[in-house]
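Predicting structure from sequence has reshaped protein science. With that in mind, we have picked out one protein's residues alongside their backbone shape tokens:
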Amino acid sequence: MGSYVQLRRAGANLSGCCPFHSEKTPSFTVFPDRHFYCFGCGAGGDVISFIMRQENLDYAGAIAFLAARAGLAVPQQGEVREDGVRRSRVLEMNKTAARYFREILNTDAGAEARAYLAKRQLSGATVRRFGLGFAPNDFSSLYRFLRGKGYTDEEMIAGFLCRRSDRSGHMFSLFRNRIMFPIIDVAGNVIAFGGRVMDDSKPKYLNSSDTPAFKKSKNLFALNYAKGNCAEQMILCEGYMDVIALHAAGFPCAVATLGTAITPEQARLMTKYTSRVVISYDSDEAGQRAAQKALRILGEVGLETRVLRMTGAKDPDEYIKAYGPDRFRQLLAGSSTGFEYRLEAILAPKDLSLADEKIKAAAEVCRLIAASGSRVEREVYILEAAKRLELPPDILRQDVEREAGRMRREQKKQESREAHAGAAGYGDRVNPDAAKNMRVWRGEETVLGLMLLYDEHRAAICSGAVPLTEEDFFTDFGRRAFGAILELERSDAGFEIGLLGEHFTPEELGRLEKMRIERRGLSENSISVLRESAELLHSEAERRRHADEGALSAVERKRAALAAKKKDKTT
């Protein structure tokens, strides 16, 4: 976990900023027994469930990932998903496809693609470094090639390389007549592809959808190269060509998102490698809107952000071709801070010589400054904004503090609403049944927490010393958890909490970890507590059964009365 999260000692535990949600104050805790729990978002479990979440893997995939990291071999059938496609097979297939695209680029079929790359001033060394290739304008050549290598239709569909036609039922290649950009993760695996047209046809880019080996919201293009060169800063671009041009010009810290706007997962990924990000998006309106969103998301994870302002070129690729690497380096040095960029975006469209425009601008600026958490930050921004607006700082300061107070009150109200909803179980996606009977659910939590913590409590239930069955549980989640724990306890291997990952999602494992932690923090966890909660569940189950029987009897009596009435009429 320490290779994903910067952990610091906190008493007997370790803590850091959670990799699963955006935060500036650490709430992610690793305990001495090597289990983790985030008190902010509720993620929790052991190292296996951690990898399931972080690498977007199922249980078997996480086991295989950790085994490979430790240099251990695992049976291949352990990676099979429900649809029969293994992650390792998709990775092998992607590598095979990348070689195919690269070979085609160097044949007669790739002549036009080579001319296009030469026109974009990409050297042979750069093309080889990024593994660029070409997908021929043929519906079946890639499919035939992969079939010849032993890959199945299901694997090609799952890997987003081919698709089956709804009309004819025939398989066809998804990437055709496109420059191919392999997307490589930090471990060196080809996890996906991006394909770019060589003319003005649409879509300009075709990117792999999520597959067993790839989740676009959690990866960055060229991070495999940038990871060792971005300790000082990382340059965030919009497209593959911008990144490649920057690397070729001597800026190996550039990365790009994968066909989507930046996501919180990608922002948290960046925090592993750098503390500052320079946003270098296109200078058009869409690019500037995307920059505003990126500023917000990157700021939420605590990254220092700056924005590059380019004039005379649309994107970094064009700028470097027009003015050279040295001018781009100067541009980087003079990049705007996030506040300067937002301030300019507010003031530039307004005529500050007009009173109404100035008042509107001041109100927007005050809201912008008030959103800053630090008083020092707010004070610096107030002084800067006062100069631009030609207003006394004290006037702005009063409005900023008033707005900051309003924001704090609104945030407290929102937190209170969420806390009440959480206490009542409303909106609980892990266990939606809990809200229907919170008293019984608290009893289920007690039983499950005790079973997760103590061997003797599991043994007492298995032996019948504390009578309890799955039918005594009210919620489906509680019933499943109880059954899975008992099944493991009765197995030859015995109970091991990590094995629950085979039966539950990472979100469900987080809920189970929360029960375990809360129970461990209580002083009274004796067999009498288990018996009391078990009796509650059993008596409530009996009450429900009697109620159901009573309702059934009432229905039967009504049916009998109707039947008798019908008989009388017939007579």
